[in-house]
């Protein structure tokens, strides 16, 4: 498909509909362990690069977990969770069942570089990459859910995923197919949050 700026009203309306209609789908409502095609993933991942990036530092780092790598990662999440909460009510298998429909995980980190660009700006750039992916997964018809990661619990994940210990954890995406048609979510009126000066 070849689109050229400025876009037609119809093209702009389609993009607006996708962004304003996007909804998150919790992992327990995902089915089939569906993973997007390689071509779809290439477009979605390239979209993660199309974000504000002051200084062209490229702080975003992503680890893709799918196939037979998923269950060991889920087990690691369970181990970290129960280490901090020995009274956690679910068994390992019960916990894993909550993710049985998830097709893939994408774990996000920020590779912060020192210099004139503040660390929080670099983290914002990674957050923008994540939001672009959320919108694009939805555009391609997939379900996606974002979970944050507590920084004080990140060390075992960084060790397990063999990433740089200085990387800042941002959280992870879960991708799959929804068990039900994604329902529109009622959003607050923007006029409550914008004002003229």
TrEMBL record:
Superkingdom per UniProt: Bacteria
Pfam families named in the record: Nitroreductase (PF00881)
Residues annotated as domain Nitroreductase: 36-177
InterPro entries registered for this protein in UniProt: NAD(P)H_nitroreductase, Nitroreductase, Nitroreductase-like
GO molecular function, one term: oxidoreductase activity
Protein name: Nitroreductase domain-containing protein
Organism of provenance: OCS116 cluster bacterium
Organism classification: Bacteria, Pseudomonadati, Pseudomonadota, Alphaproteobacteria, OCS116 cluster
């Amino acid at each position: 498909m070849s689109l050229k700026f400025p876009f037609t009203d119809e093209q702009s309306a389609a993009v607006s509909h996708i962004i304003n209609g996007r909804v998150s789908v919790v992992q327990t409502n995902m089915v089939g362990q569906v993973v997007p095609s390689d071509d779809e993933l290439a477009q979605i991942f390239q979209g993660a690069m199309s974000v504000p990036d002051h200084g062209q530092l490229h702080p975003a780092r992503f680890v893709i977990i799918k196939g037979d790598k998923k269950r060991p990662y889920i087990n690691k999440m369970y181990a970290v969770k129960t280490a901090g909460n020995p009274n956690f009510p679910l068994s390992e298998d019960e916990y894993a069942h909550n993710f049985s429909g998830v097709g893939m995980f994408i774990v996000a980190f920020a590779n912060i570089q020192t210099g004139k660009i503040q660390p929080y700006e670099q983290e914002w750039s990674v957050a923008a990459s994540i939001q672009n992916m959320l919108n694009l997964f939805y555009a391609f018809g997939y379900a996606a859910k974002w979970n944050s990661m507590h920084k004080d619990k990140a060390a075992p994940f960084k060790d397990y995923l063999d990433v740089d210990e200085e990387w800042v954890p941002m959280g992870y995406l879960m991708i799959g197919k929804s068990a039900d048609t994604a329902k529109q979510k009622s959003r607050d009126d923007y006029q409550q949050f914008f004002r003229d000066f």
